[in-house]
Structure of 3-oxoacyl-ACP reductase:
Amino acid sequence: MPSTIESLHNATVMITGAAMGMGKMYAHLAVKDRTAHVVLWDINAELLDAAVAELSGQGSAIHGYVVDVSKLEDIEATAEKVRSEVGNPDILINNAGIVRGKYFWEHDQRSDIAATMAINTLALMHITREFLPGMIDGGRTSRIVNVASAAGLLANPRMSVYSSSKWAVIGWSDSLRLELAQAGHQHVKVTTFCPSYIKTGMFEGARGPLMTPLMEPEAVTERVWQAMKEGAPMLMMPWTVKLSTALRGILPIAAWDVVAGRVFGVYKSMEHFTGRK
């Protein structure tokens, strides 16, 4: 079996948070690669309908499903619809996410803490659990992309809940990769994506650390798409994420705090965060 997917012509691609931003960009890449089916999940019905209309008529069958991924019952019901109406996806991109940028004690326990963990962490697990058995049993080359964050690798003020949600994703996602390999299911590969700030509006007001400018979403989605095809275990963007992770691992905490706070400016990157309006 080749390590890189050469053709997606017979594949079904499913993307969460697909009605706008990078989710819709992944959908455009799927259509460009002439996938058989593109399944879009999003909570916003109006934007979802617009995305389906925008993507239709270009060769791929486009299927839109309104779903609240913070609710397990919604995930279960919609997953059953997908399996019966389209079939089990071959490519799953867990893209949906939210961010709350404030000090921990300012978070509301339901609308901030519970919602962040439900959407950013638990939803990825529940959605993958719905479709992974079909990927395993189908025997077809399959891929799972889990969108984490550089914030899941490095602590940062005003990101405590968001960071914890992405920290959990990284641990789960990479463990899943190892489990699949250990169990002999090499046809299913998992890519964990850990980006710094991207110009999508989600992190409006955030400032990139030293040598880490906000990235252009089009370039990022194309790189993730290629990593997915290759079955890359982890993708960190930009290169400074790897550097920061390495330095955090070898420096004493006090020294790292000086480097991250005063030199790189990581600890000040969320001071002017406003988020998407």
